[in-house]
Fold:
Amino acid sequence: MFNRRRSRPQKGGAAPAARGAPGGRGGGAVALGRDFRRFWTGALSSNLADGVMLTALPLAAATLTDDPLQISGLAIARFLPWLLFGLFAGVVVDRVDRVRLMAAANTVRCCALALLAVLVGAGQATVWWLYAVMFAAMLCEVFYDLSGRAALPEVVPAGTLDRANGRLQGGKLVAEHFAGASLAGLLFAVAAALPLALNAGAYLVGALVLLGLPAAVRRPAEPGVPARSGAGLRSVAGDLGAGLGAVFGRRGFRSVALLLALVNAAMTAQSVVLVLLVQDRFGVPEAFYGLFLSSAAAGGVLGAASTGGLVRRLGRFATCVLAFGALGALSATFALSPGAVTAGLAWCALAFAAAVVNVVAAGIWQLVVPGALLGRALSCIQTVGQGAAPLGAVLGGLLGRVDLRLPSLAAGTVIVLGTALAAPALRALSHGADAAEREATAERDRFRPGA
Structure:
């Protein structure tokens, strides 16, 4: 297990912004603080832009071509940046000012979407322009997402990490899936360039808001992590090797990272045949398919908001095991649902469990991995998870040819078995995160005025 760094006391004797435990003395909830509110505002603006873009670009593509293969190219452009640049992005995130990197990523996305809005408005856009903008925007998303996750432990005070992750996850679901998608559809009906212009503006707002964060949360120094020597490709390779070793060089870390990739593949396997299963087996009309999907967003928001309380009451390990077990059981329940109402409730509950898994897992990695390695470690985990998704999609399609319920049944079985096999590693990692929390809380209380 890594040795955690000691938190630095802030000016004026205030409690340090250490990675922390649930609650302070007397059990009172610790406020997330002004820095987090600014951070969250920037994230919400970016999430809104993401939701608009991911809805507007396919709509724009449909006006340029009716070839399904050409339209599907947007999905390739969306996921390819993670596979090509995910690991390298982790190296960059651990080398530079993370807040400035997030702001720069949003600025580039703003420019790309503004250019596309002009092209669409002038009638000069092509499908290839859509591919290029999608690829550029999602490449920036790789850097933005990793930077944000790596910076968060330095933004929030001890005792609030799970709550902060839950708020970010819930805000993302609301801004991206509810507000962003709805706005894009409404504005596109007025003029195809309008949602793209909104898109560019929201990214710019997100960039400007983040620039107000203090220098202390931008790039933490981490004692115990060897300094880089040399430059160029050899130095990058060394940094990348350290990140890979941080995740895959330790058995417990490797087991949990592979479990998360397995779950991602299983969930993808279910999603690729979802539209057919919902319409053909559960009898949901096309007009109500979007409403059915919104049940997942609602479940995800509730799950993200509930995670902090679950961790405080049950502990990280119990919360993880219950959430993974619920994912497996609910996948089977969804597949065997007798009708649309039962299926919708199961899909909502499944999204609840998935949100809990995502929030708790994020907090564990942020607590047990040193800050100077966090970008690289998260990039390794994310890249493996993204790489597992296409495999899950292929398997889901093949199983769906036999029976549309098979992908969900197989996913449930795989998740339960994978959780059982990885339980010892999950327990060790969860307990390591708990120990880091206790240390951070003790450090925070030591510097608390009047302690």
